[in-house]
Design a protein that fits this description.
Two copies of one chain form a homodimer. Chain A contains 16 helices and 18 strands. Chain A is an alpha+beta fold. Chain A has five domains: about 90 residues, Uridine Diphospho-n-acetylenolpyruvylglucosamine Reductase, domain 2, CATH 3.30.43; about 120 residues, 2-Layer Sandwich (Uridine Diphospho-n-acetylenolpyruvylglucosamine Reductase, domain 3); about 110 residues, Alpha-Beta Plaits; about 80 residues, Alpha-Beta Plaits, CATH 3.30.70.2740; about 45 residues. In chain A, the strands form four sheets. A seven-stranded antiparallel sheet of chain A has the order 15-12-14-13-17-18-16, sandwiched between helices. In chain A, strands 5-6-10-8-9 form a five-stranded antiparallel sheet. Chain A has a four-stranded mixed sheet with strand order 1-2-4-3. The relative contact order of chain A is 0.12.
Chain lengths: ~475, ~475
């Protein structure tokens, strides 16, 4: 509970209408999309309208020793948007303006509260393209995408959010407002603090503006779906598609457990289907058609028992549903699920996926795998039923073993969801204690008093699963 | 001069044959390719063969308070490889092995002393492609490319070195050997220390191994050359080529002053040529041909008085000479030149180039501009004759004004050459004092005693042009 004096000072910074201290309102901000995360109620929720207001809040928070937790749409899956040590949540949703879309320099300047899809559309109107495409693009904000270094299906060809960040305006822990990076395609003027901020989950600075790179929009997209009777063949076909010289703009895998939960999509999938790949290629009209043909050949040669190619956009939508409906469908059959987003080098994908299913069997838990196979990033979903005793513990054991497996295969415990609170216990497993310590030193250099989103990313005693 | 005890300890680490203390030998390492840089003789030159040897040297250097300056082929243009505070030069050229080219995971694992072209060739043999292509690719090393975040002509489509770095093995200032990043296409496990190391010019750690991303090799390249009678039209055509939906794999500009110094290349350029663009497109055979046709149309519509398209590889080589021979030709007509590598947003290119020529006229100095116009990165070459009194001062005034102009246009003072010692005085102009201070804090966190390549990147009193 904040002192009256502090509340008053905060109200003066953002205006009375944009400062919330009422417990009923604070409760709304005690959650994000993370499953099994305990509510974490902040002491205040502030909705700043400018970098100057953010700076004012941060200065006050520094003086009072209050944590500051920036938050976009709250779609975070690893607890990153939760005020686990109390303090102030900064809801950035009022800073939602697209300040510029510069079609000549292929750049957009945005505030952090812009919804990802809104930028995609604004770029599209000018024949431009913003590739990062997280599943929650119609809801999540660019500030959240920057904080987590969001990916999505197109990363296999176009890379992740970090690759589109040219420059950032950031409020530092000191309350200073600085500009990092350069509004140019290249710059080596000093250390890459811009890349350091991206993916730092609000623990090193608060992003108040971003200059993002745009590309010319591809003229055409072609969508394909390949059905496999063996999961291993599907995983191998992912490598083969890359080896064929075609770089698809998406290669999404859906395994048998995920397929089984899908409603009837009218795709008439064979009974024996053990996995499907949903793929997209893009480029000039001629190139997209050519690449789709090549990819269909590669799939057939790789053992696909059926390859469908969308004749028009409606059909493309239908094929994509075999991937996009997996999440919602899993949610329907299992009220709770733990969704990990491991990554392995793509050549290790067959081993990884079969290994994960083996570990799930060992622990007697249900597991469905799907996701961005083109870059080796698989969403491993463990499905829980509330009435099965001991299941949560078995799932946690399975998760820990999956991480061991993945790290052993040269992979990473998180491809796009971040560490937040939920993966802290496993960070050292992947990075080693020395690297975690190095990260701590970077954190201390940028936020000596630890007021920026404390308790996230770096394992602290008594937090997370540690 | 090192104490006998220290020399002996160093010899024990790397072997007697690989530790040099003889003044005649030290003098060989007092220079890099930076013009006008005073010789900076190290106290010792060591040629380690492993990360463990590097770690041993760094630990000893830390205990003795000796600077450690890593060095590849010495092609650095901003003084980065010079031991400006004495100490130990680490010549990484013995660590020159390509440890793996993994065609299934699209990765290579390399030591820092590998020559860039050797990796390009090793990748090519497996149908793979390592895009970064600095002008000195046949000489420079990947360690140097990583230290400077090297670019080259293909960056317009493929990005710079940082975008190909998946993971690094680094020796820290403490002598610890750590692994940063992940051997996967995505990972958000903690802060992006990998990107922080890339471009840090050996001031934050010494890279002893890198896992680099490879792409499928494009099936075909097409080369074009467009001649313009007005520089401004050429600069505008650069934007137009991007707007046309084609992303060329190179768009190189050569201005009139650069053209005039070229030998006869048999290209029969018109007398009135004020600029040429040398361009490349790549992709599948069909796509490269299509894109080349589209690009030729765009150039004609943009006012090119002639567009040549190479019929075969020999002709492509000849067209490329109009760009690649500029540097050597300038060197022939002017024994000394100062080569800056400014960058602007591509829409500001016309203003930038005409502004630079105006500033050169004001200072009565000769200036030739050429380079990677596709990403807004122009090499501004000021040509000096030893017999012209006061010319060097006039050039330095012109350089300072060029940086003012570029920063005013939203650009950067260096696109790929780095800061080293020569640009320190201008770093604050671009970044502001707060950001320079932030970089100092990062440096202090990673190298508290300041032994790693001291006197580079961050302005220190009495160093560089400050």
């Amino acid at each position: 509970m904040l002192a009256r004096r502090v509340r008053k000072a905060l109200q003066e910074i953002v205006g009375e209408a944009h400062a919330r201290f009422d417990p009923a309102q604070l409760a709304l901000y005690a959650y994000d999309a993370t499953p099994f995360a305990a509510p974490a109620q902040p002491d205040g929720v502030l909705m700043p309208a400018s970098a100057e207001e953010v700076a004012g809040i941060v200065r006050l928070a520094g003086a009072e020793g209050l944590p500051v937790v920036p938050r976009g749409a709250g779609t975070n899956l690893t607890g990153g948007a939760r005020a686990v040590q109390g303090g102030l949540v900064l809801a950035m949703t009022r800073m939602d303006r697209i300040l510029a879309v510069d079609a000549d320099s292929f750049q957009a300047v945005v505030q952090p509260g812009v919804v990802t899809e809104d930028l995609q559309e604004a770029a599209g109107e000018q024949g431009l393209f913003y590739p990062p495409d997280p599943q929650s693009a119609d809801t999540c904000t660019l500030g959240g995408n920057l904080a987590e270094n969001a990916g999505g299906p197109r990363a296999v060809k176009y890379g992740v959010t970090r690759q589109y960040v040219l420059a950032l305006q950031v409020v530092l822990a000191s309350g200073q407002i600085v500009r990092l990076g350069a509004r140019t395609l290249k710059s080596v003027a000093g250390y890459d603090l811009c890349s350091l901020m991206v993916g730092s989950e609000g623990t090193l600075g608060i992003i108040t503006e971003a200059t993002l790179r745009l590309l010319p929009a591809p003229e055409r997209r072609e969508t394909l779906l390949a059905v496999f009777e063996r999961l291993r063949d599907a995983a191998k076909a992912v490598c083969a598609s890359m080896r064929s010289g075609v770089i698809p703009s998406a290669v999404e895998l859906v395994d048998e457990a995920s397929l089984r939960c899908l409603p009837d999509l009218g795709l008439d999938l064979p009974e024996a289907a053990a996995a499907v790949l949903v793929m997209e290629v893009d480029g000039s009209a001629a190139e997209a058609v050519r690449a789709a043909g090549r990819l269909a050949e590669v799939m057939q040669a790789g053992g696909a028992c059926r390859v469908m190619r969308a004749a028009d956009e409606a059909e493309a939508e239908r094929l994509w549903k075999a991937r996009r409906e997996v999440g919602p469908s899993l949610a329907r059959i299992a009220p709770l699920r733990i969704n990990e987003d491991i990554v392995v080098p793509i050549a290790r994908l067959p081993e990884a996926i079969s290994g994960i299913h083996e570990l799930a069997r060992e622990q007697d838990v249900t597991c469905a795998c799907f996701g961005h196979a083109g870059d080796g990033n698989i969403h491993v979903n463990f499905l829980l039923q509330p009435d099965r005793s001991g299941e949560r513990e078995r799932v946690e054991r399975a998760v820990a073993r999956v991480f061991d497996l993945v790290v052993g295969l040269g992979g990473s415990i998180t491809g796009e969801h971040g560490v937040g609170t939920t993966k802290q216990a496993f960070l050292g497993l992947e990075l080693g204690a020395e690297v975690v310590e190095l990260m701590r030193r970077v954190k201390a250099a940028l936020d000596p008093d630890g007021i920026l989103n404390p308790g996230k990313v770096l394992p602290l005693p008594g937090l997370g699963r540690a």
